[in-house]
Specification:
Layout (H helix, E strand, L loop, with lengths): L39 E5 L4 H12 L3 E6 L5 H13 L4 E5 L5 H15 L4 E4 L15 H22 L8 E5 L3 H4 L5 H21 L5 E5 L15 H5 L17 H8 L10 E2 L10
Parallel strand pairs: 1-2, 1-4, 2-3, 4-5, 5-6, 6-7
Helix pairs in contact: 1-2, 1-8, 3-4, 4-6
Keywords: Oxidoreductase
Family: Belongs to the short-chain dehydrogenases/reductases (SDR) family.
GO molecular function: oxidoreductase activity, acting on CH-OH group of donors
């Protein structure tokens, strides 16, 4: 059984990792082997959670990493992630803004090109979710905000990076187990994750002829800042208990799947989804 604390529940999205109890595990399991040597990656929502774990792992594998994050409230997380990237020998840049704003996406990619001269990998990971017991009480503003961040943001980022991607580039999306089995507290969020799944498959077909691979990961219950920022106390305390493994996963248990899809190890994969979900068959 998990022992997650609900005494530090957060009232903002996407949440702050520095305030979580316990701290999520983000450190890579193994030494690097140069699988991303010379590459530049952009990771949205890269300051914390799954994004931080992927950023650190990418740096360990030789990449320079640009992390995009939402607000000033997360600056501590962003600065910490940059330190972790640099400790792994990579160069990093943190860019603050909202991926739901197309202009920001264009400007962010321009900053990455100015700094590193190239983009090879896009990890579309930023997301928000808002638990609501009664669907009839989900506001129009909440629906629009969730779709704008979760799916519009992914589309805007792809449009921004495409002029810079060369043959061999990779796009990795973060969808969710909720795209497959739903979540009754997160109906609008689940819908966006289903849209990401379809977007991934369609985009993979569109870009295959250009030598650009598009795939996705569909995590199950993972201990990230979204959890204490989204769920009521009783859900936080028992988060992940209903998975087949009887626990929630950690961000560093998702990052290796993202790395696999971002590097040449997955050179014959397009439009596929990996499922680091703990065998989670029921709603948490």
């Amino acid at each position: 059984m998990n022992q997650f604390s609900n005494d530090r529940l957060q009232d903002q999205q996407p949440g702050v990792e520095a305030e979580m109890t316990p701290t999520p595990d983000f450190r890579p399991f193994y030494p690097g082997s140069g699988r991303l040597e010379g590459k530049t990656a952009i990771i949205t929502g890269g300051d914390s959670g799954i994004g931080r774990a992927a950023a650190v792992l990418f740096a360990r594998e030789g990449a320079n990493v640009a992390i995009l994050y939402l607000s000033e409230d997360e600056i501590e997380d962003a600065e910490k992630t940059l330190e972790l990237i640099e400790a792994e020998g990579g160069a990093g840049i943190a860019i603050r803004g909202d991926v739901g704003n197309k202009k920001f996406c264009n400007d962010a990619v321009a900053q990455v090109i100015e700094r590193f001269g190239r983009v090879d990998i896009l990890v579309n990971n930023a997301a928000e979710q808002h638990a609501q017991q009664d669907f009839e009480n989900v506001s129009e503003d909440q629906i629009e905000a969730t779709f704008r961040t979760n799916i519009f943001g992914q589309m805007f980022m792809v449009q921004a990076v495409l002029p810079h991607l060369q043959e061999g580039a990779a796009i990795v999306a973060t969808t969710s187990v909720t795209a497959y089995r739903g979540q009754d507290l997160l109906i609008d969020y689940s819908a966006t994750k289903g849209a990401i799944l379809s977007f991934t498959r369609a985009l993979a077909h569109k870009l295959a002829s250009r030598g650009i691979r598009v795939n996705a990961v569909a995590p199950g219950p993972i201990w990230t800042p979204l959890i204490p920022a989204s769920f009521p106390p009783e859900k936080v305390e028992s988060f992940g208990d209903s998975s087949t493994m009887g626990r929630a996963g950690q961000p560093n248990e998702v990052a290796p799947s993202i790395l696999f899809l971002a590097c040449a190890d997955s050179s014959f994969m397009a439009g596929h989804v990996l499922h680091p979900d703990g065998g989670a068959p029921t709603a948490d």
